[in-house]
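Slack export, channel: ligand-projects

TW: morning all. Re-posting the request from yesterday since it got buried. We need the structure predicted with the small molecule present, not the apo form. The ligand is magnesium ion; the SMILES is in the block with the sequence. No rush, but it would help planning for next week.
GE: picking it up
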Amino acid sequence: MSTFILWDIDGTLIYNTPSAGVLYLDSIEHVTGVRPTVPVPDPHGMTEGQLLLAALEVNGLDTARLGDVLFELDVLSREQHERGHVREACEGADAAIAAFAARGWSNALLTGNGPNRARYKLLAAGYDPEDFDWDHSYFGHESPTRHHLTAGARAALTGHDVVIIGDTPNDGLAADSAGIPFIAVATGIYSAEQLRATSARVVVDSLTTGLDEVVAAIEALATPAADYVGPEEFGENPDVEVSSAP
Ligand SMILES: [Mg+2]
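GE: finished. pasting the full token output, ligand included:
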């Protein structure tokens, strides 16, 4: 059994920026010929597929073009990356990744971004993508909701300890619906006080000041019922790995 730390990206590994939505607007405009003017209410914690679908809907545009818009978003993200776009890593996250790895825990991603965009974002903020286990990372760009995303992650990681680190109440709700413990970090738009209203095992202002508390919370995870992975599950889920460690 392994421990997987599933990291949210925006607001958790990388600070949000005021211009974050520009690429979404550009993608929709390139595909439909119309630049959206009506904002999506409460977009934080939405998957990209969910957000772009909502943007098409509230602007009266053809929702059947969602796949084309997602494809265009990938193209524009690559171009932005090639122009040398720089992002800012959230304080303490890099040290937390190292501290988790030193304990034998696997750092991985659970994000509403697609995999290409996730990789570009990490590189732009100075992270090494190889510090993350991409085979056990979950990308929600085609998920209708974050719940869909967490349910898939929980099923794929049967038999392992899993924790989600995120910055929004939506991250917490999606973790709850899949039965995954949630840890909240207030480096996004929500304050620690707002995040304390979620199910989070621990809420920290940042991973600089809160790392010890977060490590203790993860160490305290106890899921004895998940220790055993039966042969049926091996047959149905060949990705499941079982550590030979005691
Ligand atoms: Mg986030």
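GE: first-pass observations. The first strand starts at residue 3 and ends at 7. The radius of gyration is 18 Å.
TW: perfect, thank you
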